[in-house]
Prior knowledge:
By secondary structure, the protein is mostly beta strands. The chain is built from 4 helices and 23 strands. It folds into 2 domains: about 5-240, Jelly Rolls (Sandwich), CATH 2.60.120.10; about 245-335, Jelly Rolls (Sandwich). It has helices at about 65-80, 110-115, 145-150, 220-225, and strands spanning about 5-10, 10-20, 35-40, 90-100, 105, 125-130, 135-140, 165-170, 175-180, 185, 190-195, 205, 240, 250, 255-260, 265-270, 275-280, 285-295, 295-300, 305-310, 315, 325, 330-335. Strand 19 (about 295-300) and strand 20 (about 305-310) form a beta hairpin.
Amino acid sequence: MGALEPFLFEPILKHRAWGGDRLRHFGKRVPVGARIGESWELADLPDTILDGRSHVACGPFAGATLRQILTEHRRAVLGDTPLSPEGAFPLLVKFLDAHEHLSVQVHPDAAYAASHPDSHLKTEAWVILEAEAGAVVYRGVRPEIDREQFFDDLNDFEGDGVVPHLTRIHVERGDCIYLPSGICHALGAGILAAEVQTPSDTTFRVFDWNRNDLARPLHVEQARRCMRFGASQEDGIPGVVRMAEGPRLRSEGSVVHPLCSTEFFSIDWVDAMPSAHIPIETAGRPVIWSVVGGSAELRGPQGKALRLRIGDTALMPAALDGWTATFVDRSTVLRTVVPSR
Length: 341
């Protein structure tokens, strides 16, 4: 087998109580009447998670799982980037369609995960792709609310649960919301977002908007033990970045908007101009491209080519060399880099 090519993966569609059909805007085959909340674009979760591993859609590795590729070509794919503590690819990338509010939830903090081997850290970021007028997200607990008051009041509000205790943020296309493990949050209705996260599916629901769905139990005691309050909710990384107000890095053929940089991942919003030709550079690290506007034609050595349409996500192996992206029309790519650690 020669040098590795970019990997395009088959989306894994997930039914959710809060989902809708807007992922059709991103090329997903959503059945009529289905409530599809998530499209897992790049996933390498344990065998215990149903449909938790991505399969390559085309090319010489068509049908192979991401885990199989890592087993055979780990160095070429990851470079010096380590696997996750569970031995998986270190990120999970999704699209989310919040037709209704997602549950108010929290993911385990480091202390909880250390004492519970079946729970894993989940640090994530949302990038807003579409937002209806007035759409909001909930990020963190208001600074004057402490743990005791939050959980004492959990069932005291008429219909709103703990929502009045949460910080409410209006969002629009291009906004990025950073959510470290341990911070309470909820994605609001009317939003389509991309999510980049560490590879964990451990979620503790605190409030589920009175759905009373037995298949969606609450996890109040677990949440009580790992939720952050006050100043401990922040770790020095901006919690909200507005693309329209942030820095712009101009280069020939594109404008790059840095959105989020953490120890686990960095995310850039890249606007490519019509007729742009942009070298695909990995600097020896795996890079993930998610096309969220327009399309891209990737070309490599010996005439190799791969077309990415809106909604496609491709993994550029760390050892990728000699590939260039061509954009016929104005297009937008979310570029996620997995750092070497």
